[in-house]
Amino acid sequence: MAERLTINKRQLAERLGDDFKVSWIEDQCRKRRIPHLLIAGQYAFTEDHVRQILAMHERRPAEELPPASPTPASTPAPQRRTRVARPLPTIPTGTAPLRDRGLPTHRLRRDAS
């Protein structure tokens, strides 16, 4: 009998182990984060897909990671930007309201004179 070329999502979950659930596989396929085939509306995976998924989730020992570049101590920390208090615009006393022009009259104040 001919060997199967693809496996389904349940079989993939069994092959990958207990950490991989069928719902996780469906979600990753839907978001196109893992390689897969979509055949007749069903997700299918080849042996190459299984190898790629395993390689994507492989973790290397810490000594194989490149050393982090040291940050110079003389670099100042970025300063946080703050808002500048701006005065509200004023309108002269005795003028008609500006509502008909669609201006934000709730932010306008009258002259103190």
Question: What does this entry look like structurally?
Answer:
The protein is an alpha+beta fold and 113 residues long. Helices cover 24% and strands 12% of the residues. The protein has helices at 9-16, 22-30, 47-56, and strands at residues 7-8, 37-39, 42-45, 90-91, 109-110. The strands form two sheets. A three-stranded antiparallel beta sheet has the order 1-3-2. The N and C termini lie far apart (99 Å). The model has no long low-confidence stretch (mean pLDDT 79).
Which structural class should the secondary elements be placed in? alpha+beta
- Secondary structure tally, helices: 3
Strand order of the largest sheet: 1-3-2
In terms of DSSP E residues, the strand content is 5-15%
Short description:
With 113 residues, the chain is α+β, with helices and mostly antiparallel strands.
List keywords for this structure.
113 residues, alpha+beta, 3-stranded antiparallel sheet, two-stranded parallel sheet, 3 helices, elongated
Topology:
Layout lengths: L6 E2 H8 L5 H9 L6 E3 L2 E4 L1 H10 L33 E2 L17 E2 L3
Parallel strand pairs: 4-5
Antiparallel strand pairs: 1-3, 2-3
